[in-house]
Design goal:
- The protein has about 500 residues and is of the alpha/beta class.
- It has 18 helices and twelve strands.
- It has helices at about 25-40, 75-80, 100-120, 125-135, 140-150, 160-165, 170-180, 180-205, 225-230, 265-270, 275-285, 325-335, 350-355, 400-405, 405-415, 425-435, 445, 475-490, and strands at about 5-10, 45, 210-215, 245, 255-260, 290-295, 300-305, 315-320, 340, 360-365, 385-390, 440-445.
- Strands 9-6-3-2-1-12-11-10 form an eight-stranded parallel β-sheet.
- Helix 1 (about 25-40) links the parallel strand 1 and strand 2.
- Helix 5 (about 140-150) crosses helix 8.
- It is globular and about 70 Å long.
- About 45% of the residues are buried.
């Protein structure tokens, strides 16, 4: 019987090295894929690829469909003649993304490329661009949304003039005509993002690397989707949320967490045959080989908090669509290659929904050692149909996590792992690879044994998150060999194509 065991590395493209102050979809991304191959890996997991809003979080984007233009590789635009080569000679190789500066400089550079392309005579590339505009159903709404945000000084769509906020057909037509050039600039940026991404995905596929994408269950209120489809969300007549998302109070937070996303009107979505979700999943399947759905439990029930509350304490559980949504998705798209993020407060109905569609759940080793032997995250309790991580983008790095544990908990970790050496990070990697879980994913920070200053995100904060990058030359042949040997030892090594 052919083994289904596999492993991969978690790394968001913003964390790639190179010029421009932020990772991109260019040569460094291909070099990372080459490293995965050398290390015997099968998977590259990343975070959502959308255009980020406040706080630079990929989980709070201006669109559930669009790509982040900051990931566009400028050197590739220069090769196509949209930019002069010298305009791309940016020596920035900082190990943190300084978002305000990167946005100022790179968006200006990308606009120059768009102006150059849009000003040229018709060519094969121009015809490809026109086809992209015609064949991408969400594009014009998104491009107009972003252009209007610029026109109104970045204000949330609910603060725009009423006729545009409420999408009066006449106001939309007049705006689209008046702002046609700027709308075309945003269309160009999306065209370039998706052609670069699809080229990169093809490179990964040829090398035997599958891309694990990530889609949050909820969308940001200040997004093209909510503005263009208000009937699909629980909003009042003025377009304001009636309820917002969060999680209830628990051991870690006596007032819960208030996320603030608008809730779906699942009844309205059901009446439409879940068409919006089918289109969202269809687009995601074009981008990725496998999809991780963040906050999967929300499909069974989600925590609704009255809009205007300052904490999540007064929320209540509201039923989600359950199996009806996934029946519709699989009816339209076939069997879904989904990983269910089933962390947090998980009830039997969530497990039943996950298992009905044979979606693997997640096991996090950082969560395994703070209780007794029945802890479901301990390796001896892992399920074969699951994905084990040392930690995720929301966790500290493994080095930082272990260093921060009280002495008694450190001893418990060492006792369970039967380990008395000094390199605890690689012992945790070995433990993940040895798990019976079919899939193991390791954050790149753990392969590099990096400390807390290199973590990707600290939930509940907005400063300095999402900004870590690794440096040129850190992915060595010795590192690939070390990871590859462990991967082979535990039956996860990527099979070489002949």
């Amino acid at each position: 019987m052919r083994s289904t065991r596999k492993s991969g590395i978690l790394l968001h493209p913003t964390s790639l090295p190179g010029s421009g102050g932020i990772g991109s979809l260019g040569a460094e991304a291909r070099s990372f894929i080459d490293f995965l191959v050398a290390a015997g890996q099968s998977l590259w997991q990343l975070l959502p690829l959308g255009p980020t809003g406040y706080g630079n979080s990929p989980y709070s984007c201006y669109s559930a469909f669009a790509g982040n233009p900051l990931l566009i590789n400028a050197e590739l635009l220069a090769q196509e003649g949209d930019l002069a080569v010298e305009e791309c000679l940016d020596p920035q190789g900082a190990l943190r993304v300084e978002y305000p500066e990167v946005e100022r400089r790179k968006l200006s550079l990308l606009r120059q490329g768009a102006e150059s392309f849009l000003g040229r005579q018709e060519s094969g590339a121009q015809r490809e661009f026109l086809r992209f505009k015609e064949e991408t159903p969400w594009l014009l709404d998104f491009a107009l949304f972003m252009t209007l945000k610029e026109q109104f000084g970045g204000a949330c769509w609910n603060d725009w003039p009423a006729e545009i906020r409420d999408r009066s057909p006449q106001a939309l037509t007049e705006s689209a005509v008046r702002l046609a050039h700027d709308v075309n600039v945003h269309c160009y940026l999306q065209w370039q993002f998706f052609r670069q991404w699809r080229s990169l995905k093809s490179y990964a596929t040829e090398k035997g690397i599958a891309i694990v994408g990530d889609i949050p269950i909820f969308v940001a209120y200040d997004s093209a989707e909510v503005w263009a489809n208000p009937q699909l969300f629980k909003l009042d007549v003025g377009g304001r949320p009636l309820v917002v998302t969060g999680v209830p109070p628990d051991y870690f937070s006596p007032t819960g967490q208030l996320w603030g996303n608008p809730h779906y009107d699942w009844d309205a979505l059901a009446k439409s045959g879940y068409g919006w979700w089918i289109e969202r999943m269809r687009c995601s399947l074009e981008l990725y080989h496998i999809i991780r759905i963040d906050h999967f439990r929300g499909f069974a029930a989600s925590w609704e908090v009255p809009a205007g509350d300052e904490t999540a304490i007064n929320g209540q559980w509201a039923p989600g669509p359950g199996s009806a949504l996934f029946d519709a998705l699989e009816g339209a798209l076939g069997k879904l290659p989904v990983i269910a993020e089933d962390l947090g407060i998980i009830t039997p109905d969530v497990e039943e929904l996950r298992d009905r569609f044979s979606f693997p759940g997640m096991k996090i080793l950082h969560f395994a050692f703070d209780s007794g032997p029945d802890n479901p995250y301990l390796p001896h309790n892992h399920l074969q149909k699951s994905v084990v991580y040392t930690g995720t983008h929301d966790n500290d790095t493994s080095a930082g996590w272990f260093a921060g544990l009280p002495g008694q908990e450190q001893r418990q970790v060492r006792r369970y792992l039967h380990y008395h050496g000094q390199d605890m990070v690689w012992e945790l990697i070995r433990t993940a690879l040895a798990s019976v879980a079919e899939t193991a994913i390791i954050p790149l920070q753990d392969l590099l044994s990096l400390g807390s200053d290199c973590r990707m995100n600290m939930p509940g904060t907005v400063v300095s998150n999402w900004s870590w990058r690794y440096g040129e030359g850190e992915l060595t042949a010795d590192l690939a060999l070390r990871m590859g040997e462990l991967t082979e030892l535990y039956g996860r090594k990527r099979k070489t194509r002949h």
